[in-house]
Write a structure and sequence with these properties.
The protein is mainly α. The protein has helices at 5-43, 58-77. It contains two helices and no strands.
Length: 81
């Protein structure tokens, strides 16, 4: 399916927005995990070994980055810039 430059631009914006949101969520989770681990280490060192890591969204972030690159390549081929 062929997309117009305008459609590609809208898709790029949606993917970028999703990527920003998921990246921010991952950063927040990582910060919370670090605080939890620090407190646990201070109070209950042996229990720290059993802490589960926060939800990891690496795969989704990688997928969105790939989509951004694909959209950029499509825009270049169509000379949308």
């Amino acid at each position: 399916m062929k997309y117009s430059c305008k459609e590609l631009d809208r898709m790029y914006d949606r993917v970028s927005d999703n990527l920003t949101q998921i990246s921010n969520e991952q950063d927040s989770t990582a910060n919370k995990d670090a605080v939890t681990m620090g407190v646990t280490l201070l109070l209950f060192a042996p229990a720290a070994l059993y802490l589960a890591a926060g939800e990891d969204q690496e795969k989704q972030i990688a997928d969105l980055k790939g989509k951004k690159i694909a959209i950029q390549e499509a825009e270049k081929r169509k000379k949308c810039y």
